[in-house]
Amino acid sequence: MYTETVIDFDFTIDISHHLRQLPPVLWTVPDDEPTYRGRMKREVLTDTMGGIRRVSRRILKAGQAWREKREKWGLPPWVSMADQSEMTRAATPADESIPTRSELTLRQWADRYCASNKSMKSFKFRKVVYGWNVDALTQVVRATIQRVSYTRSPTVTVQFTTSASEIDIRPSSSFSRALSKTWVVVLLWISLIYPFIWLYNQFHGGRWEVAGSAFPLRTWKHCEDSVPGESAETYRRRTFKEVTGDVASLTSQRSEGADDRILVETPNGVSQLVGTAERDWFLTWESTIIHCVTARVQEAAPIITPHALHATALLDDLRPPVIDRFAGLGLQRDHRYTGFANLGI
Fold first, then answer.
1. pTM of the shown model
2. Which of 16, 42, 296, 322 is most buried, taking the most CB atoms under 10 A from its CB?
Protein backbone atom coordinates (compact mmCIF):
# COMPACT_ATOMS: atom_id res chain seq x y z
CA MET A 1 0.00 0.00 0.00
CA TYR A 2 1.40 3.37 -1.07
CA THR A 3 1.14 6.27 1.37
CA GLU A 4 2.18 9.85 0.66
CA THR A 5 2.30 12.63 3.23
CA VAL A 6 1.18 16.02 1.94
CA ILE A 7 2.32 19.08 3.88
CA ASP A 8 -0.25 21.87 3.63
CA PHE A 9 1.66 24.48 5.61
CA ASP A 10 4.99 24.68 7.41
CA PHE A 11 6.19 27.88 9.06
CA THR A 12 8.13 29.05 12.10
CA ILE A 13 7.68 32.13 14.29
CA ASP A 14 10.74 33.62 15.97
CA ILE A 15 10.27 34.72 19.60
CA SER A 16 13.95 35.22 20.42
CA HIS A 17 13.56 39.00 20.75
CA HIS A 18 11.44 38.41 23.88
CA LEU A 19 14.44 36.72 25.50
CA ARG A 20 16.46 39.93 25.30
CA GLN A 21 13.98 41.92 27.39
CA LEU A 22 15.04 40.35 30.71
CA PRO A 23 18.54 39.37 31.89
CA PRO A 24 19.49 35.66 32.02
CA VAL A 25 19.91 33.86 35.36
CA LEU A 26 22.66 31.41 36.33
CA TRP A 27 21.22 28.31 38.01
CA THR A 28 22.29 24.96 39.41
CA VAL A 29 20.43 21.66 39.53
CA PRO A 30 18.83 20.93 42.94
CA ASP A 31 20.71 18.34 44.99
CA ASP A 32 17.71 15.99 45.14
CA GLU A 33 17.27 15.86 41.36
CA PRO A 34 18.99 12.96 39.56
CA THR A 35 21.56 14.24 37.08
CA TYR A 36 25.12 13.58 35.95
CA ARG A 37 27.53 14.73 38.67
CA GLY A 38 30.88 13.34 37.49
CA ARG A 39 30.01 9.76 36.63
CA MET A 40 28.11 8.07 33.80
CA LYS A 41 24.95 7.53 35.85
CA ARG A 42 22.41 10.05 37.10
CA GLU A 43 22.93 10.64 40.82
CA VAL A 44 21.90 12.94 43.67
CA LEU A 45 24.13 14.98 45.99
CA THR A 46 23.90 14.04 49.66
CA ASP A 47 26.30 16.55 51.28
CA THR A 48 28.98 19.13 50.50
CA MET A 49 31.80 16.70 51.34
CA GLY A 50 31.38 14.99 48.01
CA GLY A 51 28.66 12.56 49.00
CA ILE A 52 27.07 11.39 45.75
CA ARG A 53 24.86 8.34 45.53
CA ARG A 54 22.97 6.54 42.85
CA VAL A 55 19.20 6.32 42.93
CA SER A 56 16.67 3.67 42.04
CA ARG A 57 15.06 3.35 38.64
CA ARG A 58 11.77 4.53 40.13
CA ILE A 59 13.33 7.83 41.22
CA LEU A 60 15.01 8.21 37.83
CA LYS A 61 11.63 7.88 36.12
CA ALA A 62 10.08 10.34 38.59
CA GLY A 63 12.87 12.82 37.87
CA GLN A 64 12.37 12.52 34.12
CA ALA A 65 8.62 13.00 34.49
CA TRP A 66 9.15 16.10 36.65
CA ARG A 67 11.60 17.63 34.15
CA GLU A 68 9.01 17.21 31.40
CA LYS A 69 6.27 18.79 33.53
CA ARG A 70 8.54 21.65 34.56
CA GLU A 71 9.39 22.46 30.97
CA LYS A 72 5.78 22.09 29.81
CA TRP A 73 4.45 24.41 32.53
CA GLY A 74 7.20 27.00 32.01
CA LEU A 75 8.66 26.69 35.51
CA PRO A 76 12.26 27.74 36.23
CA PRO A 77 14.73 24.86 35.64
CA TRP A 78 15.91 24.98 39.25
CA VAL A 79 12.50 24.22 40.81
CA SER A 80 13.00 21.06 42.87
CA MET A 81 11.12 17.78 42.67
CA ALA A 82 10.05 18.45 46.27
CA ASP A 83 8.00 21.42 45.00
CA GLN A 84 6.10 19.46 42.37
CA SER A 85 2.35 18.91 42.26
CA GLU A 86 -0.03 16.86 40.17
CA MET A 87 -2.00 19.92 39.08
CA THR A 88 -0.70 22.58 36.71
CA ARG A 89 1.05 25.26 38.72
CA ALA A 90 2.65 28.60 37.98
CA ALA A 91 5.94 29.98 39.21
CA THR A 92 5.87 32.02 42.42
CA PRO A 93 8.31 34.66 43.70
CA ALA A 94 9.61 32.04 46.15
CA ASP A 95 10.42 29.70 43.24
CA GLU A 96 12.50 32.33 41.49
CA SER A 97 14.23 33.82 44.55
CA ILE A 98 16.99 31.19 44.80
CA PRO A 99 18.16 29.92 41.38
CA THR A 100 21.22 28.21 42.89
CA ARG A 101 19.53 25.31 44.69
CA SER A 102 22.65 23.13 45.00
CA GLU A 103 24.94 23.11 48.02
CA LEU A 104 27.80 23.54 45.54
CA THR A 105 28.18 26.68 43.47
CA LEU A 106 28.79 26.73 39.73
CA ARG A 107 32.45 27.52 40.42
CA GLN A 108 32.79 24.52 42.74
CA TRP A 109 31.26 22.19 40.16
CA ALA A 110 33.63 23.59 37.54
CA ASP A 111 36.57 23.03 39.91
CA ARG A 112 35.52 19.40 40.33
CA TYR A 113 35.44 18.98 36.57
CA CYS A 114 38.89 20.53 36.13
CA ALA A 115 40.36 18.45 38.97
CA SER A 116 39.13 15.17 37.47
CA ASN A 117 41.87 13.12 35.78
CA LYS A 118 39.44 11.31 33.48
CA SER A 119 40.52 11.53 29.86
CA MET A 120 36.97 11.36 28.49
CA LYS A 121 34.95 13.88 30.43
CA SER A 122 32.44 16.56 29.53
CA PHE A 123 30.73 19.48 31.27
CA LYS A 124 27.40 20.41 29.71
CA PHE A 125 26.13 23.96 30.30
CA ARG A 126 22.45 24.24 29.36
CA LYS A 127 20.62 27.35 28.17
CA VAL A 128 16.94 27.09 29.09
CA VAL A 129 13.91 29.24 28.28
CA TYR A 130 11.14 29.46 30.88
CA GLY A 131 8.19 31.61 31.88
CA TRP A 132 5.46 30.50 29.45
CA ASN A 133 3.01 27.64 29.91
CA VAL A 134 3.96 25.97 26.65
CA ASP A 135 1.37 23.24 27.04
CA ALA A 136 -1.58 25.65 27.34
CA LEU A 137 -0.29 27.94 24.59
CA THR A 138 0.16 24.96 22.27
CA GLN A 139 -3.48 23.99 22.82
CA VAL A 140 -4.64 27.50 21.94
CA VAL A 141 -2.54 27.66 18.76
CA ARG A 142 -3.65 24.19 17.64
CA ALA A 143 -7.31 25.03 18.31
CA THR A 144 -6.96 28.22 16.24
CA ILE A 145 -5.51 26.31 13.30
CA GLN A 146 -8.21 23.65 13.42
CA ARG A 147 -10.96 26.24 13.80
CA VAL A 148 -9.95 28.14 10.66
CA SER A 149 -10.10 25.38 8.06
CA TYR A 150 -8.04 22.39 9.02
CA THR A 151 -10.45 20.21 10.97
CA ARG A 152 -10.14 17.77 8.07
CA SER A 153 -6.39 17.49 8.48
CA PRO A 154 -5.42 14.38 10.48
CA THR A 155 -2.23 15.90 11.87
CA VAL A 156 -1.51 19.40 13.15
CA THR A 157 1.91 19.73 14.79
CA VAL A 158 2.75 22.68 17.03
CA GLN A 159 6.22 22.68 18.59
CA PHE A 160 8.37 25.05 20.63
CA THR A 161 12.02 24.40 19.80
CA THR A 162 15.31 26.07 20.74
CA SER A 163 18.68 26.16 18.99
CA ALA A 164 22.21 26.48 20.36
CA SER A 165 20.84 25.51 23.76
CA GLU A 166 23.88 23.60 25.03
CA ILE A 167 27.58 24.27 25.50
CA ASP A 168 29.59 21.05 25.75
CA ILE A 169 33.00 21.54 27.36
CA ARG A 170 35.61 18.81 26.80
CA PRO A 171 39.36 18.41 27.43
CA SER A 172 41.64 20.22 25.00
CA SER A 173 43.03 17.18 23.19
CA SER A 174 43.17 15.92 19.63
CA PHE A 175 41.12 12.88 20.62
CA SER A 176 38.26 14.97 22.05
CA ARG A 177 38.24 17.29 19.06
CA ALA A 178 38.15 14.31 16.68
CA LEU A 179 35.17 12.73 18.45
CA SER A 180 33.25 16.00 18.14
CA LYS A 181 33.23 15.62 14.34
CA THR A 182 30.39 13.56 12.88
CA TRP A 183 32.37 12.17 9.98
CA VAL A 184 35.05 10.84 12.34
CA VAL A 185 32.43 9.04 14.44
CA VAL A 186 30.89 7.55 11.27
CA LEU A 187 34.27 6.21 10.15
CA LEU A 188 34.91 4.76 13.59
CA TRP A 189 31.54 2.99 13.48
CA ILE A 190 32.24 1.58 10.02
CA SER A 191 35.62 0.30 11.17
CA LEU A 192 33.97 -1.18 14.32
CA ILE A 193 36.29 0.84 16.57
CA TYR A 194 33.71 3.15 18.11
CA PRO A 195 31.93 0.43 20.17
CA PHE A 196 35.17 -0.10 22.11
CA ILE A 197 35.52 3.67 22.64
CA TRP A 198 31.93 3.79 23.88
CA LEU A 199 32.56 0.96 26.36
CA TYR A 200 35.69 2.68 27.66
CA ASN A 201 33.75 5.92 28.10
CA GLN A 202 30.99 4.14 30.05
CA PHE A 203 33.45 2.75 32.60
CA HIS A 204 36.11 5.48 32.71
CA GLY A 205 34.37 8.63 31.49
CA GLY A 206 32.72 11.45 33.41
CA ARG A 207 29.74 13.73 32.75
CA TRP A 208 28.63 16.88 34.51
CA GLU A 209 25.18 18.36 33.80
CA VAL A 210 24.65 20.46 36.89
CA ALA A 211 24.27 24.08 35.78
CA GLY A 212 23.18 26.47 33.09
CA SER A 213 21.69 29.84 32.30
CA ALA A 214 17.94 30.53 32.16
CA PHE A 215 16.28 33.11 29.91
CA PRO A 216 12.88 34.23 31.24
CA LEU A 217 10.01 35.17 28.99
CA ARG A 218 8.09 36.20 32.09
CA THR A 219 9.33 36.41 35.67
CA TRP A 220 8.65 37.85 39.10
CA LYS A 221 10.59 41.01 39.95
CA HIS A 222 10.83 42.49 43.43
CA CYS A 223 9.50 46.06 43.61
CA GLU A 224 12.35 47.99 45.19
CA ASP A 225 10.05 50.75 46.47
CA SER A 226 7.83 48.30 48.38
CA VAL A 227 8.20 47.63 52.10
CA PRO A 228 7.87 44.36 54.07
CA GLY A 229 4.32 43.75 55.25
CA GLU A 230 2.75 45.97 52.59
CA SER A 231 -0.15 44.38 50.74
CA ALA A 232 -0.33 44.27 46.97
CA GLU A 233 -3.47 46.45 46.98
CA THR A 234 -1.83 49.09 49.19
CA TYR A 235 1.24 49.15 46.96
CA ARG A 236 -0.95 49.42 43.86
CA ARG A 237 -2.78 52.46 45.23
CA ARG A 238 0.38 54.13 46.51
CA THR A 239 2.38 53.75 43.31
CA PHE A 240 -0.60 54.62 41.12
CA LYS A 241 -0.96 57.89 43.03
CA GLU A 242 2.73 58.67 42.47
CA VAL A 243 2.19 58.39 38.72
CA THR A 244 -1.19 60.12 38.33
CA GLY A 245 -1.55 62.15 41.52
CA ASP A 246 -5.14 60.95 41.79
CA VAL A 247 -6.09 58.00 43.99
CA ALA A 248 -9.78 58.14 43.07
CA SER A 249 -9.01 57.72 39.39
CA LEU A 250 -7.69 54.20 40.04
CA THR A 251 -11.13 52.74 40.69
CA SER A 252 -12.73 54.40 37.68
CA GLN A 253 -9.96 53.38 35.28
CA ARG A 254 -9.51 49.75 36.33
CA SER A 255 -12.11 48.58 33.85
CA GLU A 256 -10.13 50.28 31.07
CA GLY A 257 -6.94 48.46 32.04
CA ALA A 258 -5.17 51.56 33.36
CA ASP A 259 -3.42 49.49 36.02
CA ASP A 260 -3.18 45.89 34.91
CA ARG A 261 -0.04 45.02 36.87
CA ILE A 262 0.05 41.56 38.44
CA LEU A 263 1.28 42.01 42.01
CA VAL A 264 1.73 39.62 44.91
CA GLU A 265 2.78 40.10 48.51
CA THR A 266 6.03 38.46 49.68
CA PRO A 267 7.96 38.48 52.98
CA ASN A 268 10.24 41.17 51.52
CA GLY A 269 7.47 43.39 50.17
CA VAL A 270 5.68 43.20 46.83
CA SER A 271 6.73 41.48 43.60
CA GLN A 272 5.46 42.20 40.10
CA LEU A 273 5.13 39.79 37.19
CA VAL A 274 7.06 41.32 34.28
CA GLY A 275 7.63 40.24 30.69
CA THR A 276 5.40 39.36 27.76
CA ALA A 277 2.36 37.27 28.64
CA GLU A 278 1.35 34.28 26.53
CA ARG A 279 -2.04 35.84 25.81
CA ASP A 280 -0.47 39.11 24.63
CA TRP A 281 1.87 37.21 22.32
CA PHE A 282 -0.96 35.11 20.91
CA LEU A 283 -3.24 38.09 20.26
CA THR A 284 -0.36 39.80 18.43
CA TRP A 285 0.40 36.78 16.27
CA GLU A 286 -3.08 35.28 15.83
CA SER A 287 -3.69 37.00 12.50
CA THR A 288 -0.27 35.87 11.28
CA ILE A 289 -0.98 32.25 12.21
CA ILE A 290 -4.37 32.33 10.46
CA HIS A 291 -2.85 33.96 7.37
CA CYS A 292 -0.06 31.37 7.13
CA VAL A 293 -2.54 28.50 7.48
CA THR A 294 -5.09 29.78 4.95
CA ALA A 295 -2.35 30.83 2.48
CA ARG A 296 -0.58 27.47 2.92
CA VAL A 297 2.72 29.12 3.67
CA GLN A 298 5.79 26.88 3.57
CA GLU A 299 8.77 28.95 4.63
CA ALA A 300 12.04 27.74 6.14
CA ALA A 301 13.11 31.15 7.44
CA PRO A 302 11.47 32.13 10.76
CA ILE A 303 8.84 34.87 10.64
CA ILE A 304 9.99 37.86 12.68
CA THR A 305 7.32 40.52 12.05
CA PRO A 306 3.59 39.86 12.69
CA HIS A 307 1.15 39.99 9.80
CA ALA A 308 -0.95 43.16 9.63
CA LEU A 309 -3.43 43.12 12.50
CA HIS A 310 -6.27 44.29 10.30
CA ALA A 311 -6.01 41.02 8.36
CA THR A 312 -7.94 39.38 11.18
CA ALA A 313 -11.03 41.35 10.20
CA LEU A 314 -10.90 39.86 6.69
CA LEU A 315 -11.18 36.37 8.16
CA ASP A 316 -14.01 37.00 10.62
CA ASP A 317 -16.39 34.98 8.48
CA LEU A 318 -14.15 31.93 8.86
CA ARG A 319 -14.50 31.67 12.63
CA PRO A 320 -17.54 31.29 14.85
CA PRO A 321 -18.14 33.83 17.59
CA VAL A 322 -16.04 33.02 20.66
CA ILE A 323 -16.31 34.91 23.92
CA ASP A 324 -13.04 33.75 25.44
CA ARG A 325 -10.91 31.20 23.60
CA PHE A 326 -8.87 30.65 26.75
CA ALA A 327 -11.80 29.86 29.04
CA GLY A 328 -12.21 26.38 27.57
CA LEU A 329 -8.83 25.39 29.02
CA GLY A 330 -10.02 25.99 32.57
CA LEU A 331 -7.31 28.57 33.23
CA GLN A 332 -7.85 31.31 35.76
CA ARG A 333 -7.50 34.98 34.93
CA ASP A 334 -4.56 37.20 35.80
CA HIS A 335 -6.37 39.12 38.56
CA ARG A 336 -9.74 40.66 39.21
CA TYR A 337 -8.98 43.93 37.42
CA THR A 338 -8.42 42.54 33.92
CA GLY A 339 -10.11 40.21 31.49
CA PHE A 340 -6.84 38.60 30.43
CA ALA A 341 -6.73 34.85 30.90
CA ASN A 342 -3.73 33.57 32.81
CA LEU A 343 -2.08 30.66 31.02
CA GLY A 344 -0.64 29.21 34.19
CA ILE A 345 2.08 31.82 34.66
1. 0.78
2. 42
